[in-house]
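Dear H.,

Thanks for agreeing to be a second pair of eyes. The structure we're designing against is below in token form, covering all 425 positions.
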């Protein structure tokens, strides 16, 4: 196979005719597939069904009557311990919430605006509030900051994490920069894990704003695809504490992609100071979260080892999907030099980087042939990818046979759009 850039116009035109015909044939299949969101498929969710039986009407609540009532705002002890084990900290740093970590993040931003952190000026009184957004990043993070009218500043990332020179420049000099969104392990969507050096540099920031916070969304902390080849992001809470910056970070996670998306348990880890400050607010907001669901999770996962075993079973279901997509990319696209892609060891996404100015057209062509992908640009603030090149692939949800068809169509669309760009059609 010849790289497309090395083809002359006549070769490209012939190729274009062939690819257009193949595309039409694919369209005639009337596919209806969706690879837009990183949802577990039903077989993954089924792994957690026994969790629904661990507490029932016969459960011995003798010492746990309070769990069936209002109260225990920061979560039951067993759930705090479980999340402390996941996040490698101790229970006094943990607040266990309801079903969604995204809701906690939204709440934290909202609290910054209405009440401020640790007695600092609420952001609603400021002329300008800015957030740093490592890109490509998680579209729902950007949606929250956009919703609050926060100015978002893109920060490029490489395989070690965000460009820390740039992060330090903004954070240490600009008082209106109040936070940064981070998915530090198996990042959504690039799959990279921040290096130890990057974590240390985060911990040693000297923010111009005293209420600057790192929003450390560790959504994929235990979501490895392989048992023996795993990333492990350095512990940010500990690093901040050691750097004399204990209040710098809010860390989030949930069991959404461990048990049931939408019906799992979410938690936050932070300094004792921040926790107290948050609880003052939370005590007005709620009389307690769903402690029976917390108990269900803690009873089902009696130890972190149980949890790791469960995640390894999840990985067995996910791994073939990732490997199939990557195999097809390697076979069909690698020799053509019309794109690059990530090879994640965990998380839920593969990031595909097409030639400049191709991503929107590829996503559109896939859609016209029946395969829905995440919108091009979605992984950038305001939905604007300056190179129009990044596409997020979410292989988890479709069954293998459908994923194969969808990937074949995707590859075809990448080829077709690339040839059209080279021909300037
Ligand atoms: N953070 C990241 C990075 C995610 O990818 C997701 C969901 N896919 C979430 C948060 C949402 O988590 P939750 O269900 O706990 O709100």
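And this is the sequence the design step returned. I haven't edited it by hand at all.
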């Amino acid at each position: 196979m010849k790289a497309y850039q090395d083809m002359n116009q006549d070769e490209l035109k012939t190729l274009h005719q062939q690819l257009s015909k193949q595309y039409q044939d694919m369209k005639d299949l009337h596919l209806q597939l969706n690879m837009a969101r990183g949802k577990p498929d039903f077989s993954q969710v089924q792994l957690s069904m026994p969790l629904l039986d661990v507490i029932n009407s016969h459960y011995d609540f003798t010492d746990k009557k309070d769990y069936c009532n209002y109260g225990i705002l920061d979560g039951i002890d067993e759930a705090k311990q479980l999340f402390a084990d996941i996040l490698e900290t101790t229970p006094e740093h943990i607040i266990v919430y309801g079903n969604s970590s995204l809701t906690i993040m939204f709440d934290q931003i909202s609290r910054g605006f209405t009440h401020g952190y640790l007695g600092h000026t609420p952001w609603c009184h400021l002329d300008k509030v800015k957030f740093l957004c490592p890109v490509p990043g998680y579209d729902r993070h950007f949606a929250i900051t956009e919703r609050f009218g926060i100015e978002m500043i893109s920060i490029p990332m490489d395989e070690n994490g965000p460009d820390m020179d740039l992060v330090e420049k903004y954070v240490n000099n600009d008082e209106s920069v109040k936070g940064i969104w981070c998915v530090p392990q198996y990042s959504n969507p690039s799959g990279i894990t921040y290096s130890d050096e990057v974590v240390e540099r985060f911990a040693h920031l000297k923010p111009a704003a005293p209420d600057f916070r790192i929003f450390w969304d560790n959504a994929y902390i235990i979501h490895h695809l392989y048992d023996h080849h795993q990333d492990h992001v350095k512990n940010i809470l500990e690093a901040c504490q050691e750097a004399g910056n204990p209040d710098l970070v809010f860390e989030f996670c949930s069991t959404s992609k461990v048990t049931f998306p939408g019906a799992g348990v979410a938690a936050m880890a932070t300094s004792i100071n921040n926790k107290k400050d948050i609880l003052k607010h939370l005590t007005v907001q709620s009389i307690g979260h769903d402690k029976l669901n917390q108990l269900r999770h803690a009873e089902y996962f009696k130890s972190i080892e149980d949890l790791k075993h469960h995640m390894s079973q999840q990985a067995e279901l996910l791994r073939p999907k990732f490997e199939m997509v990557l195999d097809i990319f390697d076979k069909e696209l690698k020799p053509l030099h019309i794109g690059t892609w990530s090879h994640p060891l965990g998380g839920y996404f593969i990031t595909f980087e097409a030639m400049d100015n191709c991503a929107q057209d590829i996503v559109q062509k896939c859609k016209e042939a029946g395969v829905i992908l995440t919108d091009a640009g979605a992984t950038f603030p305001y939905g604007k990818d300056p190179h129009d090149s990044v596409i997020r692939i979410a292989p988890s949800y479709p069954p293998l046979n459908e994923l194969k068809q969808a990937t074949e169509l995707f590859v075809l669309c990448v080829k077709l759009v690339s040839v059209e760009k080279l021909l300037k059609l």
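Two observations from my side: The CA atoms of residues 56 and 399 lie 33 Å apart. The pocket of 4'-deoxy-4'-aminopyridoxal-5'-phosphate is lined by residues 38, 100-102, 138, 183, 188, 217, 219, 254, 256, 261, 266 (CB under 6 Å).

Warmly,
E.
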